[in-house]
Amino acid sequence: MASTISAATLTVTHTEALTLNGVDRGVTNTLTIASVNEVDHRIVTVDTSADRTLVSLAATVGAGAFVNSSVKYVRITNKDDTNYVTLGLECGSDDSAYIKLEAGQTFVIYNDDVQFAAANVAHGSVSFDALESVTAKANSANVDLELFVAST
After folding, report:
1. What's the pTM value of the predicted model, to 2 decimals?
2. b/e code 110-144 from CB counts within 10 Å (16+ = b)
3. Which of 28, 48, 52, 71 is deepest in the core (most CB within 10 A)?
4. Do the beta carbons of residue 152 and residue 70 sit within 8 Å?
5. Distance, CA of 110 to CA of 86 (rounded, Å)
6. What's the total number of domains in the chain?
7. What is the CATH number of the domain that holds 113?
């Protein structure tokens, strides 16, 4: 059976609009990602009791899992108007980083290559590993997150 899905180009546009002291300081940057043929777009409610896995990346497709080398864009937007969530970026059992995503904010990842290293590691010696998962936990009340994942 041949697929009837045709790959398409995802266009991501970031715009900052600011006029400061009468001078336009705004800017727009656009990135295109070719050959996108898989997308997951959903709203998920995250609670305060435990870290919840939003995205899993692995060598093969599985329930809720994306092929790590094929993921080209992940966007997580906090749709709450008050509460923040803590996002966890996990790479292996011992490597993780945490990001506070305030109400209304968006966090974007453009590929699965991340490096977690001690502060004393020189930039020239960084080697990237594949991101394995993104988790979220709400701080004080349930939070709705918008999740958009695109892969080729």
Report:
1. 0.88
2. eebebebeeeeeeeeeeeeebbbbbbbbbeeeebe
3. 71
4. yes
5. 19
6. 1
7. 2.60.120
